[in-house]
Prior knowledge:
The longest helix has 15 residues, at 35-49. Helix 8 (219-228) packs across helix 9 and helix 10 (297-308) packs parallel to helix 11 (329-339). The chain is of the alpha/beta class. The chain starts with 14 loop residues before the first strand and ends in a 5-residue tail after the last helix. The protein is elongated, with a radius of gyration of 23 Å. Helix content is 34%, strand content 16%. It contains 14 helices and 17 strands. A six-stranded parallel β-sheet has the order 5-6-4-1-7-8. The protein has a six-stranded parallel β-sheet with strand order 11-10-9-15-16-17, sandwiched between helices. A three-stranded antiparallel β-sheet has the order 13-12-14. It has two domains: 6-170, Phosphoglycerate kinase, N-terminal domain (Rossmann fold); 178-378, Phosphoglycerate kinase, N-terminal domain (Rossmann fold), CATH 3.40.50.1260.
Amino acid sequence: MPKKTIRDLDVRSKRVLVRVDFNVPLKDGAVMDDTRIEAALPTIEYLINGGAKVILMSHLGRPKGKPDPAFKMDPVARRLEELLGRRVRKIDSCVGPEAQEAVGEMAEGDVLLLENTRFYPGETSNDPEFARELAELGDIFVNDAFGAAHRAHASTYGVAEHLPTVAGFLMEKEISIMDKILKEPDRPLTAVVGGAKIADKMSVLLNFMNHVDNLLIGGGVANTFLQAMEHEVGKSLVEEEKVKPALDIVESSRTNGVKLFLPEDVVVAEEISPEAKTEVVAVDAVPENMMILDIGPKTAQKYSEIIRESRSAVWVGPMGVFEHDAFAGGTKAVADAVADVPYSFVGGGDSAAAAEKMGVADRITHVSTGGGASLKYLGGEELPGISVIMEK
């Protein structure tokens, strides 16, 4: 990776300000899913063992720039303490006298967790004064929050103006794996793109034209492509304004020698519900009173075969409304196939949730911790939180 990491700096006795992504689901004052906390442990433990004073900061939820008891970091601190097997001190502020005093009392190897950065309006507006106050707490800034790297906020971007900035191990891993897929994949490389909307996948689809061998389309994204190819899609979700761009991608695939596949058959129903009466139909026979809610079994089998013949696979977006078993067959088939590929990357968000639900997450080379961030990176965009990390 061309960026500097924590290995490139001496951290002993230094105050190391670490931006982690502890934006985890809470219920009844407890952490429901600690995947993101676990993902940060290698960086935190490396710094502890290196004799650093470790100051952690993260956002949690959307508290709208002011303190909200529902989004306090206390449950996160308790879970982190359990995972680390050592004390984690948590304070009720990010900046100001309390924070400065807490940092001043730290010894080598101590861990301090600041309060939710989004309790301050200056976080999301990247307020220079708030960023400067955060930076005053540290000697070094480590960005390990890949899931927030696409946002130019004070704690991901502004702080870097004041401190030497390096990547943590999770950030390094996310970037390295996506760079390998985009720049030097073992071929054939197959991309599977699904999810509800094509709008947030457009840059990814366009960028994939320069990188992948096969492109398999499913989910709501496929509906817009099918309409573009003049198939009747009934009451299915379609983004009318993206029909022309979808046609451009079909044309681009021909020009670039990318094999693009659309569903041949689909699962349809009149409504999205667990009790919905489903039917499998060919894509040119979708009833006008029904909507497409999954790829059909024939398509699922074909997609699975193409994926399993690949050496690398990248998957962003489920093939249907996988939350309901009636529309989960396509996503299950794709998940199982991606897990069989030697080198596999799954984008965060819904794709990560699908990989988890289908029981394949532990067989994927890497399941990203950032949905929006991975989409933007795979789409060829520069992420603010990565751009500020020092070059090697």
